[in-house]
Amino acid sequence: MNERKKLSPLLGGCAAIAVLALLLVIYNFTRPVPMAGTKNITIDVIYPNGMKEHYQATTEAHYLLEAIQTIPDLKVEGTQSEEFGLMVTTINGKEADYQKDHAYWSLLLNGEPCSYGVSQQPIKDGERYTFQYTPAGTGEQKP
């Protein structure tokens, strides 16, 4: 009976390590992989009043935020966290602050919600991104 009690924590530890290893393998196969080389992307911004701006970028960047930083007329600001990267609150001086006006900047890729934030979104040639001012409760609206 004593041996059984000693084995239980050991088995539990081995099981936990196995689960962590499996999660690591799954992450490595499903994580976003940036495309190497030159990419041409389009970025649209839809403001609260419905006005739209259109930007083209030719870039070697791997992630969307890096590409945005190469466009002089597009200013994206927000709060930075180590875990999630940049949380966009202001685009070209237009703020969408959930705490203040119950709105946010939604990020769409080819008309569909992005799976990642602006700092972690890998880019590929020919993709179209849209930042859309979205009042809370209305959901993503297709441009």
CATH architecture of the largest domain: Beta Complex
- Distinct helical segment count: 3
Number of domains: 2
Radius of gyration: 21 Å
Question: Uncertain regions: pLDDT < 50 for 5+ in a row?
Answer: none
Give the spatial strand order of the biggest sheet. 2-1-8-6-7
Judging from the principal axes of the Cα atoms, what is the shape? Answer: extended
Instruction: Characterize the main sheet.
Output: 5 strands, mixed
Return the string of H and E elements. Answer: HEEHEEEHEEE
Average predicted confidence as pLDDT: 85
Q: At the first level of CATH, what is the class of the largest domain?
A: Mainly Beta
Strand portion: 25-35%
* Fraction of residues in helix: 25-40%
Q: How many β strands by DSSP?
A: 8
Structural class: alpha+beta
Instruction: State the CATH topology of the largest domain.
Output: Ferric Hydroxamate Uptake Protein, Chain A, domain 1
Distance between the termini: 67 Å
Describe, in plain words, how this protein is organized in 3D.
- This protein folds into 2 domains: 1-31; 39-135, Beta Complex (Ferric Hydroxamate Uptake Protein, Chain A, domain 1), CATH 2.170.130.
- The protein is built from 3 helices and 8 strands; from the N terminus they run H-E-E-H-E-E-E-H-E-E-E.
- The chain has helices spanning 2-30, 64-68, 98-101; strands spanning 39-46, 52-59, 76-81, 85-91, 94-95, 103-109, 112-113, 128-135.
- The strands form 2 sheets. A 5-stranded mixed beta sheet has the order 2-1-8-6-7. Strands 3-4-5 form a 3-stranded antiparallel beta sheet, with no helix packed on it.
- The longest helix has 29 residues, at 2-30.
- It is extended.
- The model has no long low-confidence stretch (mean pLDDT 85).
